[in-house]
């Protein structure tokens, strides 16, 4: 029985370290290769020894697919390919290919230079790893080998994020990666055609949330910023360098443009500049507005947003500053925060979630006095705002995507178990398809019934057409022919042609059967009676009485003879070819019941 | 005919070469139309299919007259029979279709042939084309039932064809020609009327998506032609909503909409439950669902149609704005709900904490329906869509639904306000307009007003002006709201001083709509103090004027308000009432009996006396012929003066008054010119004096052009009179020239030309001639035979006498007539700083002007730049530069490129707007151009221009280029 097997090595009932193994029609594909943010030990990377204990991964995996450049989807890639050892192809989209190494390098720097970890991948390894990458375009069908093909769909979420369809023959799996069904200021909405895969593997971060319209959020954000700068305050927005940062930049930039504001906006430098460069390049991956207007002006060429310098923080007058990192736990954003916290005119806007223990979390939960290192106490007088700008699909969005793709079954990853439970139930109820939610290391096996294409010879088809009515589009029809399997392809041909091709002579196969009948009359008369009997019953068939005394029904021959021992019984000899098996056996059973009593 | 055809058909099979000769003999029949003969010869010459195709293509470029169509068709058919190449047959078939569309040709005679060749055709493409031809024939003969039946029959026969193209065309044919009544009387030729609807419906499940689409389209076509669709189609159409192909879904949405409009009240069951709902509600839910379809084409279609489903129940309607929020399975309030709550609790602090939007109640997991079959959140999705086309469609739909349901209008307000922040200007603009349209039904809350007003800072002028218009007709609930609006508008004024007029106008309406809300604000706004006199504000400050406009307009409805004014306010009132009378209403002020007597009586009958006056003065003039010339002149002068003053006083009569005055002025000029002494003296002596007469002629010409093209609402009746006046002016010109020039030769040409003009006049206005009894032209036409044969000198003499005898024609006044006018707002012409640029390069000058009562400004309005050296440049603005903010009003915002060689000093150039005209454009085009497929090119050659705005001076300075 053919089947699809799916084993999450990470992201099974969990967020982080996405890594899913899929076996489909004998092909093994690894989807994403991420790290976990919550761990600093071995658990931060997926357990690749699960795939194979000894022996190279290359022999076992046909390809690796990376959905987008977030570290929880690609962070383990150099470790996997260079340290564990994998030489096969790695597929990702062009923007991912461009931005991914920047983030990996940054990740490496923090781990090695700041935390002083040994036995971590090196810069060279990142470079070597990226050499194995094959970049794909949207909607481009890439043949990994003769049978396995993959195709990328637009996923929103971040620049270059893609959903992938993995297809072998007629079996297919769609992996969504992270996606967003509502368009935002710089990205469009995820879209997939009605590809009807056997399995849809979807993220489920917001499995139990239906979000408010993005317009309210945007308006709120802009209003807050605008009001603060108008009364001369400074606005600090701690962000992570990529993804939402660009979204907020565009939001502010267009607002500044529209409202003709002159207040400076700064962006703390670092990897963002490099990344912004790529944002400028990959215009085709952005939304309608940016795509349409980039000829006049590229939206990522910020007019109002300038690079930040440490000295600017002390400048008088209003300003807006984007600074990294996003949770205010270290670095530039924290420095600026300390400088500005004392003034109630200022404001800090947290655009995302903050982990417990960070300054960001503390101030969001309402703490007004912070203890800094060196026993300093920092009093926070500035306003603290929280806005959620997240780019994941909500429950409705997930359902919408499932509806668009029409899969045979759904598998949930990248979410919390409790929330998945709810969504699973909903999906099963609304779409009447199976839904799975395996934990890490747990394997889901899906039986499939792949359709096998069979070639049919035109002659045979025409012959059949000539016999019956016109074929109806959706009704099955019975057809006689010979199935030839040769070099793993199947053909249906007429038996004559099959014989010819195989060089065989045709054999006639005849069945004969004797039926004893009580009849005292002569053979001739018995034959006559059989003829008239059959004629009355088989009205559709051609029943003939031949001059030599035998009766034929189509090609079936019936002869009557006297029993050698008992003259009162006649023996009917019924003979038919195997093609007429159906009719022949019917006739015998009919004759066995005896002839009706002749009206005497 | 049929026998002949049959013979042809058989001949085709034998493919005899000698047919050529037989064709050749046929030439005799075709002697009349040279066109068909030429085609025939061409086709005979053709050696290869490619050749023949070339000839046919060439032939198709030229139009064919209705009389020769039949001949051409015969020839084409003949060639069709012998042609083996399908591409040539295809072209012939398409030509047949085109020809049968020719005006004045009845295609029923080629019907038989077309059906006949259809039966023998093998190529699918040609078949499809032939069916198309039949469709053209069928639509040409809508009354002929028999033919229609026959065509439907043919279509039904070919419906089983294997090619989708053929099936497509068949369905199209059925849709266009299928008989509408099911049981037509037993027919003429015994063809039973078919149930077209059922036949078409069967193809909803065709295997080819294109055919499915065509079937739905055909069904829609049937509906459009008046066939009542069965309700059973609804279920079929619903199934098609989940089709794999977008064009099918898109068409299916339309079909569902149509059915829902036909049977809004019938009841349909909800699958998987026992409940039943109204069909319109069900359809509404289904179309709402399509708003989140995968294809944006379908989404646009669905969003658009939602707007017109007005009968839908209100709770369904309100669902479209509701997207039950939840977070971690707990119910969450939307930001809108929170805002509303904040507002109603009176708290307005912005101290929002993390988790302020924390979800409250638990949600029953069983009850949450993630994919509602209903309308849940359709508009929320539509308004957030990626494609701005969908968003615009959604906003439009919202507008239409809100107009019909006040409660829905109230609800959708939050969403519309949100759209003011859309990233695409068009969407913002559209939503502002929408808001304006529904503003009668709504009152803005303060927080909503806040968001609305924030947009006032938008850098796009269109957006700001749209917003001003919106504020003009908005209801504000509190006095804080008014104050807020005023503050924001003043902020806008300082930021964009060019918005001055628009802001004043906006405040005028804001004041007159909310007198009671303005009242408590007055002391604050005027910064008066109960004990101290405050400094008198600067009267020229636009912001102060804005405040006063608001207050004075409010005071009109609120008699207690003037008591709060201080002395200088009254003075300012008097000043503003005079200088900005359109913004400041007449007030009844205590202690001053300034206008009190005229305020009320003015309102009701005040149009009648002036109208009457106008009529009377015109009547007086038309009785003119009985007076002596001297008296006539005086009367005319008097009346013109009266009319001009009337136009100034009564803006609604300005058009009529100006128009009549212009006409009378022409007459006056004519009379004056004829009074000249030069007529009595021998010609050669009065060369100089003739200046006056010829100047008069020229001026009359100018005036007539102005009358014809500068007024909107001029009807044919007036055009005749105007043209008549122009003809008189031309006659005058001719006489003057005849008097002043020596020699006869140039006169010959002029006379000829003049007579042509007369002839032309007669042809153009033949229908109106009876009204011109006793007029100049009437007499002239009587004398026409004589004129044609006379010598120039004689002609001039005749003209002179007729001109003198002719009477003043009565100019009937049109109902509504408005003079086109234009004001250039920008450049203002006040700047002392010259615009510097390097000579030889260009500088772009922004021009912003408002146009009133200009018809078709895209083609008529031009910008003229006059350089100091006398060089004039005419610029044609792009059609996209014109906006249409209201009926009869246009706005030109364009850039004019200036360039010149280097100057030593800065100097002024003049910029003005011109109205280009072409008097020939009024004459209907000769008919033969319209036949054939080549659409007549609209040639807008400019005959002349009329300046219709005050020129504005712009200071420029082209510097020499630095080396």
User: What kind of oligomer do you see?
Assistant: heterodimer
Catalogue the unreliable spans of chain A. none
Q: If strands are numbered along the chain, what order do they take across the biggest sheet of chain A?
A: 6-5-4-3-2-1-22
* Main beta sheet of chain B: 6 strands, mixed
Q: Quick one: biggest sheet of chain A?
A: 7 strands, mixed
Number of helices of chain A: 17
Secondary structure: number of strands of chain B: 16
- The radius of gyration of chain A is 37 Å
Distance between the termini of chain B: 86 Å
Considering residues with a beta carbon less than 8 A from a beta carbon on another chain, report the largest interface and each chain's count.
Answer: A-B, 55 and 51 residues
Strand content of chain A: 15-25%
Radius of gyration of chain B: 37 Å
Helix content of chain B: 40-55%
Low-confidence sequence ranges of chain B: 9-33, 183-192, 345-356, 593-606, 923-940
Terminal Cα span of chain A: 64 Å
Class from secondary-structure proportions of chain B: alpha+beta
Number of helices of chain B: 40
Going by helix content, strand content and strand pairing, the class of chain A is: alpha/beta
Residues in helix, % of chain A: 25-40%
Number of strands of chain A: 30
Shape by Cα distribution of chain A: elongated
Subcellular location (chain B): Nucleus
Main location (chain B): nucleus
Keywords (chain B): Nucleus
Protein name (chain B): Integrator complex subunit 4
Describe the protein in words.
- The complex is a heterodimer of chains A (600) and B (963).
- Chain A has 600 residues and is an alpha/beta fold.
- Helix content of chain A is 31%, strand content 24%.
- Chain A is built from 17 helices and 30 strands.
- In chain A, strand 29 and strand 30 form a beta hairpin.
- Chain A is elongated.
- Chain B has 963 residues and is an alpha+beta fold.
- Chain B is 54% helix and 9% strand.
- In chain B, strands 8, 10, 11, 14, 15 and 16 form a six-stranded mixed β-sheet that branches. Chain B has a four-stranded antiparallel β-sheet with strand order 7-9-13-12, with no helix packed on it.
- In chain B, strand 10 and strand 11 form a beta hairpin.
- In chain B, helix 15 runs antiparallel to helix 16.
- In chain B, 38% of the residues are buried.
- Mean pLDDT of chain B is 78; it is low at 9-33, 183-192, 345-356, 593-606 and 923-940.
- At the A-B interface, helix 6, helix 7, strand 19, helix 12 and helix 13 of A face strand 3 and helix 21 of B.
